[in-house]
Amino acid sequence: MTTRLATAFLGLCALGFIAPAFAQSAENSPDSPAARESRWQELEKAIFHGRTATPSSGVVTLEAPNRAEDAALVPMTVTLKSADKVKALWLIIDDNPMPVAAHIVFGPAADPREMKFRVRVNDFTNVHAVAQLQNGALVSDAAFVKASGGCSAPMGQSEADALEGIGEIRLKLAGPAQPGVPVEAKLMLRHPNFNGMQMNQLTRLYTPARYIDKVTVRDGDTIVFDMNSGISLAANPVLSFGLVPRSLGRLTVEVSDSSNTHWRKDFDILRMTD
Amino acid sequence: MSRATAFDMTRRAFGAGLCLCCLASPARAQNFALEEVASSVFIRRGVDAEADAANLDGIANIGFIIGEKSVLVTDSGGSLADGRLLRRMIRDKTAKPISHVVLSHGHPDHFFGAGAFLQDKPVFIGHHRLPEALAARGEFYRRRLVGLLGESNVGPVVMPTKLVKEQTEIDLGGRRIVLTAHQPAHTASDLSMLDTSSGLFLPADLLFVGRIPPLDGSLSGWIGQLEAMRKRKYGPTVPGHGPARVDFGPASAALLRYLTILRDGVRAEIDSGGSIEHAMTQVAQSERAKWKLFDDYNQRNVAEAYSELEWQ
Fold first, then answer.
1. Domain count for chain B
2. Torsional sign, CA B46, B52, B54, B57
3. Which residue of B has its CA nearest to A146?
4. Residue B202 sits in which domain range?
5. 8 Å CB contact between B152 and B116
6. ipTM score here?
7. Do B147 and A69 touch (CB under 8 A)?
8. Which CATH number fits domain A53-271: 3.40.640.10, 2.60.40.2470, 3.40.50.2300, 3.30.465.10?
9. pLDDT, mean of residues B111-120
10. What is the pTM assigned to this prediction?
11. B contact residues 110-169, partner A, Cβ 8 Å cutoff
């Protein structure tokens, strides 16, 4: 199943290289802004159950490079104004095989002012950041990214190397943590995030998909955020987020992947020195 | 070239490369100039450009060493078409059998010429980790290159038939070539060669001259390997990219300078909490005027270095 799907997607990838040279100007081509917009509307319908996100005036801002230097590692930043009103966030890469890169639900210990992601981008695509506010409204921002091949791009190393140290969890704080004071954190997860689209030429088989699909960060019993993710996160995912430490500052990170493996690590953040 | 890099310009290049019929013409062969860098060692200097239909991915320095009994190909070329041109040049110089073809590492501009030598049934020599690199990436590179050059110009991915774990010697008849397998540096499958009779050093892509080096193995490893090589005081050298023959001392010093600036700059960003995207726009900018294709690779190198060093 995975393999067949992957083959189909690779076919699409290959077409992606050739089609634009001929079809850039055609209004009904798959690469015209209109076609991209209608694909987004379809996606929006599917993801938000028929509801639409309003392009926001500065509530949510997506920063992405216009041209990705490395399609397998594209940094993106989402900034949220009136962070206290934001309940959840989606990062959606429209033309990736699995468009929802991350869906994050913020908890009481979050400071959702800014989130940084590193993703794979498979083709020239629109990227959407959609925020859900406490009143249920959906607001969005979009960016167009020129990149290609980020999904089928092979790992930098062999499969065995890529799996070395899988599940290692690291956390770095931008400064000393104090109860009640927002602080920026960087979460690093050692995981190849195999997306099922990388082929081993000796065996002619695709390396089976194995990716992080859930991350929960909490401080004691208080949720910072819950994230559901997919194959669009880059290998060795790194995520930056804001949190407001509780009085004990006992941060727990729980990670699980699509092969149902779980990892967990605790951090005594009030005593962390970097 | 590191993953996907040679092909970033696919779309632009495709527009220019629609005339696939006129590739590999005699005119193209005339541009295929050889330089005798040491006695009976001939090198074709690669062009300092990205792969495209006009250059047939002939962007790396490739060539051959003629011994008393047989010929060793130092690197095969960037495509089947590029390899065929090299083979024709070898046959112009000598009728001795082509006994060995070296696959210096797992990048397409160096190994896709190998298909042109299958008929000679040579020993294809590679680093012990080359098979896994080709397994993981060969088909990806091939598809990308087909998009640029057309199916018939690209050829197959040829696997090595003899692997070098640490060091091995080849005798071409009165001419011993020593091949050394390196720890991850430019890539995870770098081989270097020393022609013991002339003293000529051939480190392939462990040495870039004038063209910005893409990082695809380990930055710390590459710096370490270069420092170790510099202690051995090599003289005349054939870099993987750049002039066909340089002096190893100054050429390696320039590369080491760039890699060190890259490492120190990225470390400083990580230590001060600078994000990867910030690092990409800031690090090593002082090197910009010193390298061809700087803007095509530096940001990628910073990203690679950042994701390597942040785990250290």
1. 1
2. positive
3. B8
4. 5-309
5. no
6. 0.77
7. no
8. 2.60.40.2470
9. 98
10. 0.83
11. 129, 131-140, 143-144, 147, 157, 159
